Amino acid sequence: MKICCTRVRRKGRCHEKLQLVTKNQTTLKPSVMKKVYFLLLILAANYAAAQNKEYSISMNGLGALRLGMSQAKAEELLNKKIALTKNYLDTLNGYYEDTANVMYKNIPVQLEFQRSYTAPNTFYMRLIGIRSSSPLCKTSDGLGVGSDNLKIVAAYNDYHINIQPGFYNYYATETGKGKSTIRILDDAASTMLYDANAYTLVFYLLNNKVVSFEIKGKLKEE
Amino acid sequence: MKKFLPFFLLLVATTVVAQNKDYLLSTDGMGAIKLGMPLTELNKLLQKEITLKVINIDSVRLTETVKTKYKGIDVEIGLFKRQDNIITVDGIKTSSPLCKTNTGLGIGTTKLQIIAAYNGYHIDAKPDFTYIDEKPVKSKTKSTVTVKEDREGYAIIFTLVNNKVVSFEILPIYDDEE
């Protein structure tokens, strides 16, 4: 099927009209064309929705990446091995946490993993943080890179919101003109609830506009 | 009459400015009442002797809250006895609509207005929680917004009901107290 441009006469004037034409040059009836356009619209909408889901930011994940998922599950999802370099397998001297920079659905993300013990000296690496600065990623309210601070506050009105100058990090805050951090804490994070998964959505802003975000989890022991 | 009017207007404007200063909220106090002010100075300011019922009687207790009037409005003043035995102002609380910050925030102000006014500050806006059977239950109406210049130090705490300020408190906050 192809689209052809034909000239038609209507009310004494010539107009150009786009028409769907089959292989044997038969023009489709308008009623059939309407159904085809409608079907194409539905397909386009579904494709956009699927794309949106893949980059959807929530309190506990980004698209199919979910906090709490094992390194093995994350590798299966990304279809490649994740290289953790801090010798996390060394239970005496190795690091308890490690990060890796990977590509997820064509966007760069930083994944943070932490040891999760199932028995003494037996553990697996579990996803506890996802960080990205891709403008494709958005929350269900449409917030993402470029959003301003007051829109974030308005969208998360019922949550515990913490705002501070600099790019906040538990270990050290990165200071600098125009830098700030907005952290959205869920109820478990806000009340430091014991024996519950607690999630924090972090927005890093420059001059009150989001430049990157991070989803962090403090996960209960299994 | 024409000469009298400008003079009268000047007098009114000066009175208004003075009134505003009396009720001006900041992170270090309200009007002339400042955090850290000794009780003796507070008594002079209020032109009355505050009666202590706890600090001066019980040697173990170091804090006390008193209710009093300041420039015609009801205030609660927190007092603290330091190691040198000097009693100082350690907190001020009021719900008077006369009290405003230098940017005009006061009773009825919304959470968004507070956050917009304190750009660059440390802000903590959180809902109130109560505990039932040791499980936290979030309040649907009550919340607080705490504003500090730095991570630790003096703070203004705005208490909100249905996202509008109903009272303020000014006190020192140190990290492990939040």
Summarize the structure.
Chain A has helices at 30-54, 71-78, 149-155, 187-190, and strands at 2-10, 13-21, 57-58, 61-62, 65-66, 97-104, 107-119, 122-132, 160-165, 179-185, 198-206, 209-218. Chain A has 222 residues and is an alpha+beta fold. Chain B has one domain (4-177).
List the total number of helices of chain A.
Answer: 4
Low-confidence stretches of chain B: none
Into which percentage range does the β-strand content of chain B fall?
Answer: 35-45%
Beta-strand percentage of chain A?
35-45%
Tell me the radius of gyration of chain A. 25 Å
Identify the biggest protein-protein contact and residues per side. A-B, 20 and 18 residues
Order of helices and strands of chain B: HEEEHEEEEHEEEE
Give the helix proportion of chain A (percent range).
10-25%
Pairing-aware structural class of the strands and helices of chain B? alpha+beta
Sequence of secondary-structure elements of chain A: EEHEEEHEEEHEEHEE
> Structural class of the secondary structure composition of chain A?
alpha+beta
Bulk shape of chain A: elongated
What's the number of structural domains of chain A?
Answer: 2
What would your notes on this structure say?
The complex is a heterodimer of chains A (222) and B (178). Chain A has helices at residues 30-54, 71-78, 149-155, 187-190, and strands at 2-10, 13-21, 57-58, 61-62, 65-66, 97-104, 107-119, 122-132, 160-165, 179-185, 198-206, 209-218. Chain A has 222 residues and is an alpha+beta fold. Chain A has two domains: 2-54, no CATH class; 57-218. A seven-stranded antiparallel sheet of chain A has the order 6-7-8-12-11-10-9. Chain A is elongated. The model of chain A has no long low-confidence stretch (mean pLDDT 87). Chain B has 178 residues and is of the alpha+beta class. Chain B has one domain (4-177). Chain B has helices at residues 4-22, 39-46, 111-117, and strands spanning 24-26, 29-30, 33-34, 63-70, 73-81, 87-94, 100-101, 122-132, 135-148, 153-161, 164-173. In chain B, a hairpin with a 2-residue loop joins strand 8 and strand 9 (135-148). The interface between A and B is medium-sized, with 20 and 18 residues. Strand 9 of chain A pairs antiparallel with strand 8 (122-132) of chain B, so a sheet runs across the interface.
